[in-house]
Structure formats: C-alpha cells, structure tokens
Amino acid sequence: MYEFKYHRPATVRQAANLLVKNEDAKLIAGGHTLVPVMKQRLAAPPHIVDLSHIEGLDGIEMKGRSLVIGATAKHADVANSPIVGEALPALAELAALIGDPAVRHKGTIGGSLANNDPTADYPAAVLALGAMIVTNKRKLRAEEFFQGLFTTALEPDEIITKVLFPLAKKAAYVKFRNQASRYALVGVFVAKRPSDVRVTVTGAGGEGVFRVTAFEEALKKRFSPKALDGLTVPAEGLNSDLHGSAEYRAHLIGVLARRAVEAATNRA
Amino acid sequence: MAKISMIVNGSPASGNVDPRTLLVQFLRENLKLTGTHVGCDTSQCGACVVHVDGKAVKSCTTLAVMADGHTVTTIEGLAADGAPLHPMQEAFRENHGLQCGFCTPGMIMTAIDLVHRKGHDLSDHLIREELEGNLCRCTGYQNIVASIAAGAKAMSNSDLA
Questions:
Q1: CATH number at residue B119
Q2: Are A267 and A246 in contact (CB under 8 A)?
Q3: How much is the pTM?
C-alpha cells in the first residue's frame, strides 16, 4: 500500500469539501473493496476521506411508500433489519448473500453502488426495483446511475447519501455463486412493480448490470416461470472466463430468472 | 502520522501510526498481540478476525485509523493468562477442533460472534454456512463444527459468554 493522508470528516458537507480540495481523493466507508485494491497497488489515492464516522448516514426507515437506506448502512444491517424484512424481503435476502459474516459487518450499500463491480449484488436490486440514488447534489435514477464496468454517473466531488427503494408487489433475487470467490457468477433479480416487471442480471454482463427486456415483457403478461418458456438470452456480449463461458452464463440467466419468479410468487 | 487510541481487550491502547497501518499490524506489531494472525491478507481466510464494537471483522482489511475510538477484542482478551479458558476455547480443546492452530484464533472469534447473533443452539448446517469466511487448510472442519456447537451450548452457562 502506498502512503496517503487520512481525513475523518464529521459531515457530508465536510467530506465533499475535502474531495474538492484534494484531487484524486477517495472515499472510504467499509473499505472492503478499497483496502484490498490499495494493498495490491491497483489504487494509490493520495487522500482517503473516511465516511464511517459521519452520524446519521446509516439509517434505515420507511418514508411514505419508499424504503430509505442510508449510504453507510452495512450489509448486515440491511440483512437483519426488520424494516427491510417487512418492506422488501428480497433485498434483505440479497444483503445476506454478500461476502461472509465479517465482510457484511463492514461493507456498505453506498460503497457497493459507487464501486459498481460487475459481479456485485446490490446493482441488480437497485436497477430492478427502480431505486433512486440520492447524493449530496441530486437524485439519480438507477438507469442513469450505472454506466458500465466500475463506472457510475457520480462526479468527483459527489457522495451518495441514501438510496430510496419504491416497494415492489413481488420480488426475489437468486444468485449462482462462484464456488471460490462467492461473488455472483450470475445473479438475477426479478421485481413485479405496480406498473411493470423488471428482470436484472449481475455477474454476467460485459458492461455490468443490465435488464432482460424480453423476459420483462413476457412476465408482464403473466408472472409465472412458464411465461419464460422458449425464451433465451443471447450469449453475445456476456463475460467469458475460466469460471464460465458466455454460453453457460446465458443459460444460467434463464434458469435463475425462472427460479426467481418462482421464489417471488411463493413468498407469503 | 496519525494519533489513534482505542480500547483493546479492556485496556486503553494508543499509538502514532502511519495511516496505511492495518488494524492487524497495529495489534501484532505495536501492541504485540500476536494471537491474531495474517493468513491470506486478502480478506478471505479469516485468520485475522477480531471483534470491533462486539462484531467480527477482518482486521487485515481494516485500517487502524478507522478503529480509532472503538473497542477491540482479540483472542487474548477472551481469558486472562492462567485463568480458565473461555468456553469456546475450551470446546475447541475438548473436541480437537484444531490441528496446526493457525486458523484457530479467527475461528474462535467468528464462532463467538456467531453465538452472539444466532444463539446457543446451532445446527451443523448453520455453522458451516457461517464459517464461509474462515478457512482451515488442515481441512479439519468436522471437529471445528463440533467444537462450535459444543462451545455455543457451554456459553449459555458461562459468565464469559
């Protein structure tokens, strides 16, 4: 790890000022992506701005018809929150599948979204549920937030403060884990929303999380695994590596989407 | 350099560290608490698990400066020198839950966190799921699982739980 200067702001405003003043500064919250890449010297930020001591940034609450999750809420907080379990059980289940228990005690929803790892779980939920990402500057729709591999719409001095999830009628996330890393080889999130159905895929796309509109249209007509009969996802553009070919991942998307629809339907 | 102070195993500890110091380095090299191990150094193996504010975390992936002002418990903090072992440590001894012992401090810290979260009656399946982030390369999981199940029960009758 290369040297850096450490900053611990008490407010989001202070943190944003530190980002403006220090070019190439990086935010840290749980540190479970940033610290490993700094150790590998893949990242060498001269300044680290620690968000983990900002009060009130990790809250979880219902506001109107939205579930509001603060940016520094840990994966374990989301997984175990009775509020999330009641409002969006699929989201609590997704959080419980991230990493391992110790990782879930540190990793945060804001950090995961800002990093936009193509195998991360949260982007699938955020895009499928049509969540709104709130920053210190504006509100971003999920569709405009994710912009490709490890790339988001966030500006250099922009900080995620919370995520607003509209409630879904039914939803489920099914993840096929890489046996070694436990990251998603493929993960599929299905959400039956008041106006439409969304099917999103993580782990498989060459450009990160994406929607499967052919599945969405079929499921909008009939929300049942049978509605997907005969439908497949083209392998073109999907990741192909030693863990699985693009064709294998394409096949998994179909299998997991059917399982997710079934799980969403069977939820009491 | 950054001045940090925290409560480690019940006592105040402080130091003036380079901000890139990992919590595990601070514990091992500054405080000489070498029971916490560095195995993979990539947050996968769990040999470095300690409790921060009562929750299991990987100290190889935590900056020492981020633990400033917090409370840390390491394997050394479970039982005083010469005093009876913590029930989870005793269960590992009774059930032969270790071979080389390198992963054991992390296994025990993870196990105690598990009991705090899930109670004293733990199924083998749950224990195996929860050990996802702790690797034993002697491949001795069978006895580790048996130790944790026994330790969890023993903790219900102990003041140390």
A1: 1.10.150.120
A2: no
A3: 0.96
